[in-house]
Amino acid sequence: MNLYEHTIIARQDVSPAQIKQIIEKYSKIVQKLEGELVKTENWGLLDLSYIISQNKKGNYIHFKIKGKGEIISELEKNEKIDKNLLKYLTIRVKKFDLDTNYFFNKEKKQEIKNKK
């Protein structure tokens, strides 16, 4: 089984309900093709490096997937025609880093520090 990190960027005007639908849609594709979704992260609305289709920001969603290469082919085929998505990227990795949360909200960090 191969390990993949797959990130998609949805348009900035997508509602939280639509983001949940996007996550569910692509999670079902992975499960249908007998893959394992190890972790799903919603990184939220972040600035883009450059304007894409008149969007300055995008909603980032990150999947850690264990499975065959055909899963990625199917995901990318569906993402090409999805009007809510701006970009997607898949990287094959040797092992997952499940401990580090790179896009952890600064406000949540403060809340955790205050609770301790």
Notes on the structure:
The structure is a single chain. The chain is of the alpha+beta class. It has a single domain, classed as Ribosomal protein S6/Translation elongation factor EF1B (Alpha-Beta Plaits). 34% of the residues lie in helices and 42% in strands. It contains three helices and four strands, in the order E-H-E-E-H-E-H. The chain has helices at 16-32, 69-80, 106-115; strands at 2-11, 36-52, 55-67, 85-93. A four-stranded antiparallel β-sheet has the order 2-3-1-4, covered by helices on one side. Strand 2 and strand 3 form a beta hairpin. The longest helix has 17 residues, at 16-32. The N and C termini lie far apart (40 Å). The model has no long low-confidence stretch (mean pLDDT 87).
Q: Which structural class do you get from the secondary structure elements?
A: alpha+beta
Second CATH tier, the architecture: 2-Layer Sandwich
The sequence of SSEs as H and E is EHEEHEH
Largest sheet: 4 strands, antiparallel
Percentage of β-strand residues: 35-45%
User: Biggest sheet, strands in spatial order?
Assistant: 2-3-1-4
Q: CATH top level?
A: Alpha Beta
**What does the overall shape look like?**
globular
What ranges have pLDDT less than 50 throughout 5 or more consecutive residues? Answer: none
CATH topology title: Alpha-Beta Plaits
What count of domains describes the coordinates?
A: 1
Secondary structure: number of strands: 4
Percent helix range:
25-40%
CATH homologous group name? Ribosomal protein S6/Translation elongation factor EF1B
In angstroms, what is the radius of gyration? Answer: 15 Å
The whole-number mean of residue pLDDT values reads 87
> Terminal Cα separation, in Å?
40 Å
The tally of helices reads 3
